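Retro notes, item 3 of 5
We never archived the inputs for the zinc ion complex last cycle. Fixing that now. Sequence and ligand:
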Amino acid sequence: MPEGDMVWKTARTLDRALAGHALTRTDFRVPRFATVDLSGEIVTGTTTYGKNLLTHIGDDWTLHTHLKMDGVWRAIPVGQRWPSPAHTVRVVLETAATQALGILLGVVELLPRAQEPSVYRDLGPDLLSPEWTADNEAEAVRRLRLLDDMAIFDALRDQRAVAGLGTIWAAETLYAMGVHPQTTVRAVDERLPRMMQIGRLKLKESIRTRRPPENAVYGRDRRPCHRCGTMVVRISMGEPEGRPRPAYFCPHCQPDPAQR
Ligand SMILES: [Zn+2]
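Structure as it came back at the time:
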């Protein structure tokens, strides 16, 4: 699942394609909004909150989309053949020059602008917020502490605590901190503020570079740790979505809390 950094980059793709331009055609290919036509409206820009994309159309509408597992937004010149089968395209936003295609999106929701906060009301602070403050950090830590029995790897990915991290950056953050993914939140209580700072640095580093920096542990199972040479391990963890997620770590640099 794309994480905050990928979602942020997707917003920039949409801005390059659409921001400041009038829509010449719209097609919301989901039953609820199939009859809506926003052609003539100007797209003012796309912002993000965690993994959510918020595209502002005219003065009145926000298009909320979420990539979930397989979703992607593509911008192609008008008239060019779609890169994906038509049935996978959920949204078409077309200007005179460009068509933006929302493909396999997990969420497509057209909201009156005033209802936009409903998208993120229940989520923790957005780690990629440009206005991230000490208060945001304290609030994220407070929300993480509510999950005190949960494994820290699962808690970091729980968007209700802090928005923007997924399996990649949770794993990379824990490696940077030397914390085993199955450690409980309670056991790393004092280190949570630092963890937020590192998570934010990781996401920001990724959005500054065209190509993401090489992962230390994510996707590197059975390859040697850059620090100590021990083979990186992959295990399956489940919360909060209940679906198994791979957790990668170095057993030497991130010792098992049960064996200390
Ligand atoms: Zn190591």
